[in-house]
Amino acid sequence: MTYLRRCFPAAAGFYLVSCLFGCSNASTDIGAAATPTSPTSPSPTPPSTGAPPPAPTVKAKFAYTGNQGASLSGYSVDTSTGSLTPLNGFPFSLGTNPEILAHDPQNRFLIVTDAATSQLHVLTINSDTGALAEVSTPPYAVLRNPNAEVINPAGTRVYVVSLYNGVVGGFNLSSAGVLTEISGSPFNTSATGNGTSLVMNQDGTFLYVQDNTNIYVFSVSADTGALTLQQTLPGPVQGDALALDPAKNYLYAVGSDTNSILTYSINPISGILTQTKLSAMVKQSGALTIAISPAGQFAYTIEGDSDLVSYSISNGAFTPVGKAYSGVYGEQIAVDPSGSFVYVPQACSFCPSGVYNVVQEFSVGSTGALTPLSVPGVAAGVTPWGITLISP
Q1: Phi and psi of 97, rounded to 5°?
Q2: Domain presence at residue 16
Q3: Which of 96, 216, 226, 259 could be 209's S-S partner, Cβ–Cβ 3.0 to 4.6 Å?
Q4: Bond into 54 cis (ω within 30)
């Protein structure tokens, strides 16, 4: 089920919610499982566009989750242990169903989508305390059911994709946190599928958008931020999430009805994609999300609805490592900027085992394998969904 809204009925009343499985913390050793494979007739990979980035040393200072129960949760991050500690003043009441969070690279603003009211909230971030304050302008009306968002590297534009019809909305972001719609927005794809994910390359020149059948490549005007559709190509069945290789060589895609991680090479000039590899998933039951470590050598997925799986990555191919942790009902995964810790909001507000309304916390080993922290979960608001980490 691609658009699962687990266990909490949003106030607007249009999300079906149910918890079908228990939320345990059982694990399975996957070190020898699922060898990556290539498609029958792979296309040639273009020359590398960049070496893997050096291992980052900066660590997160604050973490925030968007909770379907009309609030945000905020935490300080212990840079030594990775443990999250709730900040004063949180949970912070906001909107009706504030699910997805993004912050500008300059760490000035937190931008939150509200799926129930089809609005964007812009909040300032206090770099000393982590406190949030909504800008004086009221929430912005956007596309119906905003389902994913991205902010460009300059921190001057915001793009959102609609769950309802897959169109992309674009906004200019001022230094005061004010949004104004980009001329020509919204921008259409070549289909009408449900928009599920979008990512922007590190140079801010291309935007990649996913719906439940295709992936779309848009070029981005440096002057206006307007989008121009350059390519439409097949994506995973019931596509759910995209992620970019930090070295700029590959785009990765997963879907809830696709049992492989799809790898696309990126033309460094045109941004055009070519599918080059398929890597078998461990659970062979689809994936809801994927996150890549800052140096690009590890990946983390939620497979089969509730299994957290780790992979190492080499030349766009994925190899399972460590253990798979069951009962992790995540819709988003956040990796610490240093690559040392992984956080997953437990996107289920009433699991039979009682493990719900928490953020799961893990440390990352040298192979990319995960280990739960000594206190593996911290309390969150009702049905924590999206998560972002701030390093002011």
Answers
A1: -145, 70
A2: no
A3: 216
A4: no
Number of domain units in the chain: 1
Residue 15 lies in a domain: no
Rounded distance between C-alpha atoms, residue 102 and residue 113, angstroms: 9
Q: Would you say residue 6 lies in a domain?
A: no
Integer Cα distance of 145 and 194 in angstroms? 10
- Containing domain of residue 370, as a range? 27-390
Can you tell me which residue has the tokens 């590890």? 298
Residue type, 65: T
Structure confidence by residue, pLDDT tens digits, 67-120: 999 999 999 999 999 999 999 999 999 999 999 999 999 999 999 999 899 999
Number of neighbouring beta carbons within 10 Å of residue 202: 14
- Residue appearing with tokens 């949760």: 73
Task: Give the number of residues written for the chain.
Answer: 392
Task: For residue 127, give the nearest of 361, 326, 391, 313 by alpha carbon.
Answer: 391
E strand or H helix at 180, and its extent? strand 179-181
Residue 247 has what DSSP assignment? T
The burial of 18, by beta-carbon neighbours within 10 Å (0-12 exposed, 13-18 middle, 19 or more buried), is given as exposed
Phi then psi dihedrals of residue 269, to 5 deg? -95, -50
pTM given for the model: 0.87
Q: Which two tokens stand for residue 335?
A: 């990796």
Domain of 232, CATH number, reads 2.130.10.10
In a domain, 1, yes or no: no
Distance (Å) of CA 370 to CA 56, 152, 196, 279: 18, 30, 27, 20
Distance CA 49, CA 31 (A): 30
**To 10 degrees, the CA torsion angle through 363, 338, 388, 298?**
-70
